[in-house]
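Suppose you are handed only two things: the residues of a chain and a line of SMILES describing zinc ion. What would the bound structure be? This form records exactly that question and the answer produced for it, so the two can be stored side by side and reused later without any lookup.

QUESTION INPUTS
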Amino acid sequence: MSAWCCVVIMVSTISTGVLSPAPMNAEVKEAYDRQYWYAQAQETLQKRLQYATGKNPVAKNVILVVGDGMSLTTATAARILRGQRRGQSGEDTDLVWDTFPAVALAKTYNVDAQTGESSACATALLCGVKARYETLGLDAGGRFNNCASTINSKVTSLIDWAHDAGKSSGIVTTARITHATPAALYAHAPSRYWEDDSRVPPTVRRDCKDIALQLVENEPGKSINVIMGGGRRHFLPNVTPDPEHKNREGRRLDGRNLAEDWAREKKRRHLRAQYIHTREQLAKLDPRTVDYLLGLFEYSHMEFNAERGAIADTEDGTHSEGNAKAEDPSLADMTRAALSILTKNDKGFFLLLEGGRIDHAHHYNNPYRALDETLELETALLAALEKVNPAETLIVVTADHGHVMTFGGQATPRGHPILGSDTVPSDIDGLKYTTLLYGTGPGHSEPRALPFNGTSSMSVDAVHAAAVPRQWSTHGGEDVPIYALGPMATVLFTGVVEQSYIPHAIAYAACLAHQARRCMETAFNFTKPQIKIPSCVPPEVSSVSAPDETRNDASNGRRVIVASSVMSDERGTRTSAVAPLMTDLYLIIIALYFTVSAAKNSLSESITSGLNNEIL
Ligand SMILES: [Zn+2]
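ANSWER OUTPUT
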């Protein structure tokens, strides 16, 4: 072991020993947690940029495609289902993202949780900062359900960064527009469940706006060009019947109709805006005359693709009394409309395209819908690719977190139905089992049962077996894939990265916010690849590669940027800081120490609160 390694271990040990009894100023720690993730992303970026060449194109447009809960297993199974629907064996089929040139893996843990949760994962994926379980758009200073903790913990998102660059922006999702993933782009909340004011505790309603209200009243929400998804109930007063489901009212207690308020605010600013809530209205839309579009197509989430155009189900799965038709537009319909508006801006755009219900189907242990929704997401991406030029558009496809679905079989033949059962029963109990199984969830039964009779495997509602009974399945904690196409994709999206690195890499490719600097420089000066295998692994420090890479940089006489900027909710407060090597190292070690100790304190509290809140 080299002497350098010993120093790292010593510093690590000393800092832990010395610092553990001393409580750190809360404000310093809050700022520090944010800085840590920015610095972490910057270091990863520097590593990736060692592969850059003289040609470093700039992404004018960005499309970030998120399959909520789209684990690698989900992507593999969906690929096979796609092929089998075409009458092929399926295993050798390619989904469109399988053809992308760049692939990486993202670590999805949260600041205080081993297995990622959607809003905290979305904060990492869209704001570049890891967050606490069930908080939204806040760094680690934000505490669950604690309104006061949001004051200094708000972080900016890819949409803020895109707006600063003069780009248009859009969100298209099949989930509620106020749901965890889309909300992380525009809202800051100590609880992802504060989607309307009825869920915000009365004592803090004046200080902490609900998520829907932030979308309509605050930046960057009120400047987003295209907003499409479900969730009307959070925009309508509790005395106003839903236009589609007449027997249900909105949920707002403040008496406001936020859809109307949204349109009124745009009119006041002389902006060309339109609010719609049906598929017909979307079909009739003339994108040449609309620059701002709010489409809320469902009371809650949009229907699963399997239900579109069929009898609508209520949220708990039972048929609604009104037998309302669920005539929701498809994700591809919404994507085409969104791009028709967004592509009008010469400066480009940022679009989040979310398949929000893959996750929900998995929570029910229902792989049919999970795979079907994944294929709908692929169809939407294919629609997008028809409208953009990949030479100037960075497309990144990933998931917020995984799920506990497994895929396996004992000598199951090629082309065997992916939703079917293994051809060989269990050698222990002699019972059959499906190829796709779950670790946890409602599919558990004793004795184990197949979700269908005989060999038929095409039941839309089939609930596959789970090892452990739970009302809903848990998420999966494994890494999720990142597929990328477009400017700088092959440089930026390789290897195993923190999820919070992704938006920083996107910002680099598109020259956004704190990564805009390279576009202002006349000549690029990237060094030749100098990749070295780390020669030692300091114990107790998980980011082992960082110190070694830092050492390499130091031997070259280069300095590593610690935190190129710290983003605040207020515009115009961004600063750059460059610190010497050992300060970097020391700060990283301290950050790791405090991240770990803070996680210990709040984990049990967060998980307990999570159990009391419906994850869907
Ligand atoms: Zn989930």
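WHAT STANDS OUT: The domain at 63-404+474-488 is CATH 3.40.720.10 (Alkaline Phosphatase, subunit A). The first helix runs from residue 3 to 19.
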